[in-house]
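To assess whether ligand presence alters the predicted conformation, the chain was also submitted together with adenosine-5'-triphosphate. Input:
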Amino acid sequence: MKNDALIIDDLHHKYDKKEYSNWILNEINLKIENGELLGLLGPSGCGKTTLLRLIAGFEYPSKGKISLNNKEISSNNKILSPEERNIGMVFQDYALFPHLTVMQNVMFGLKNKKDRSRVDYLLNIVALDSFVDRYPHELSGGQKQRLAIARALAPGTNFILLDEPFCSLDMHVKLKLRSELPNILRGCNASGLMVTHDPEEAMSICDKVAVMNEGKIHQIDTPINLLNNPKTLFVSSFILGNNIIKLEKYGNSIMSCLGVINNSELLNYTNIKKMSISPKFISIKKSESGNAIVISKEFLGEYLIYKVSINDNILRVRTNINNLLNNGDKCFLSINKDSFYFLYPGAHKVYI
Ligand SMILES: Nc1ncnc2c1ncn2[C@@H]1O[C@H](COP(=O)(O)OP(=O)(O)OP(=O)(O)O)[C@@H](O)[C@H]1O
Ligand SMILES: [Mg+2]
């Protein structure tokens, strides 16, 4: 069985410490196994950086416990300083020392400056071994971020925190470096927690993803499980980009803004309030007698995404690029055959 690198137990935090104010972090529980990369995913302001700062030791929690490698590092009766925690940190703006070379930047945190073997190993892993004498301003953005990762791992830590590490890189470099990150960590037997607000980024490289909103973790799961079983409406809309539609029961019928939902399976669920459905499972057809109106249009490579207003709801609909409509066009929307949706509460998956 794998051991846990990081365990967070019932963590709560607020900056102002006032009794009546809301928690910035509310009842956070999570585990990261040795060798695992966990993505922390959520919208701006939901508390991602705050959680990282508590783990790193730059903030003290209001309540709760953090353990790293089976050692308590933060609790009611014990708070270790950031230096005592031996955690590597990587920020979005690199935070390199401009007056030190590549080699000196990586050597900086080493307790034993003679221990060149780990530095050489790391520079090789991040493919900077032929740049050791350059200064940060002589490196590209991707090289700077690889240097920041090597520097974070150099002092022999096996746990790193990364706060939006690819944010300031252009698309091409971002894709390359993010596919390299899991291998770099594996090469050093390190585990990590990576903050991002980009679902695709988290889903593509992390072993597991923790989805957070307004200080609470909604679900921690593998990317595939998040896609197949989004436990809350927030996970459904934030990760899958699904439409959330209100449902109302009238006798044996279920009404929605798309009309009556004809599915006998729905009647098994007595307490259903909402459904979540992917934009790709809704069809759009131009019609002068249509009850919906196109309000915006976005080209997305192979697809078109329309925002459509229907019975006081705004839905997103994905269609192929030949199905051209203009803003203001009237249209009909319908749920495709051979699709599925989720019902809440309960996250029941229903096939059509
Ligand atoms: N030092 C601070 N003092 C008081 N409030 C703070 C402080 N730092 C952050 N906050 C507040 O805590 C909440 C969470 O902020 P945090 O920086 O953790 O969000 P985030 O999820 O990292 O957002 P982003 O994606 O924009 O970086 C926000 O409402 C923010 O205004
Ligand atoms: Mg942040």
